[in-house]
Automatic annotation (TrEMBL):
Span of domain PepSY: 114-171
Protein name as it appears in the record: PepSY domain-containing protein
Natural source organism: Paenibacillus glacialis
Length: 187
C-alpha cells in the first residue's frame, strides 16, 4: 500500500509542477494586433512582420512613416520610431530653393539630416509668417538649422531646428525697435 501511495504522491507532484492541462498563452493574430495599433495610431499599414515575440508594423501617417512594435500576447505597443518625415508641399515657401538631404557618418552608422525645406516647414508650423533666411550650423549630428521668420504683426523670430530629429529647439524673438534704431544710425 505504501508503494501505491508513493506513486500517487509522485504523480500528483508531477501534475502540480508540470500542469499539462494548463493552457498556454493565446497569441493574437496579425490582424488583431494591426487593428489594435490602428485604433491608437490611425494610418495606412505599409508592412507587417512577425519578429520573435513582436509584430513590426510600418504605418504611414500624415506626418510621416512610423515603425511600431507590438507584443504578440496582448497587442501592446512596445516602441514607436519615426522612419520618415512628410512635409506637405502646401506649407513650403516658394522663395527657398530645395536643399540636399545630407548624411552624417558616425560610429553608429549614417544618420540622415532633415532638409532645409523640412526645417522651414517645421518652423512655419511653430511661427507662422514669411521666411527671410535659413542656414545650417554645425558639422556633425549636433547640427541645427536657424530659420528667420517675419510675422504678420511685424515681429521677427529665429527658430532653431534640430538637424536630425526636426525638433524645435528654441524660438528667439528679436526686438524690431532696436534693429530700426541701428539701421537709422547707419544712414
Amino acid at each position: 500500500m505504501s508503494v501505491v501511495v508513493l506513486i500517487l504522491l509522485g504523480l500528483a507532484t508531477i501534475g502540480i509542477v508540470w500542469k499539462p492541462w494548463a493552457s498556454s498563452p493565446v497569441l493574437l493574430s496579425e490582424e488583431e494586433v494591426v487593428r489594435g495599433v490602428l485604433v491608437q495610431y490611425p494610418g495606412e499599414v505599409v508592412s507587417t512582420l512577425l519578429e520573435n515575440d513582436a509584430y513590426v508594423i510600418q504605418v504611414q501617417r500624415v506626418k510621416g512613416l512610423y515603425e511600431l512594435r507590438a507584443d504578440t500576447d496582448k497587442g501592446a505597443i512596445t516602441s514607436i520610431k519615426r522612419l520618415e518625415v512628410v512635409v506637405p508641399d502646401a506649407i513650403l515657401p516658394d522663395v527657398v530653393e530645395p536643399t540636399k538631404n545630407h548624411t552624417i557618418d558616425t560610429d553608429k552608422g549614417s544618420t540622415a539630416l532633415i532638409t532645409g525645406d523640412e526645417a522651414i516647414a517645421l518652423s512655419l508650423k511653430q511661427v507662422p509668417g514669411t521666411v527671410q533666411e535659413m542656414e545650417f550650423r554645425g558639422k556633425d549630428e549636433s547640427g541645427y538649422y536657424l530659420v528667420e521668420i517675419d510675422t504678420d504683426d511685424g515681429r521677427e523670430a529665429v527658430v532653431q531646428v534640430n538637424g536630425i530629429s526636426g525638433v524645435i529647439m528654441s524660438v528667439t524673438w528679436d526686438d524690431n525697435d532696436s534693429h530700426d534704431n541701428e539701421d537709422s544710425q547707419d544712414d
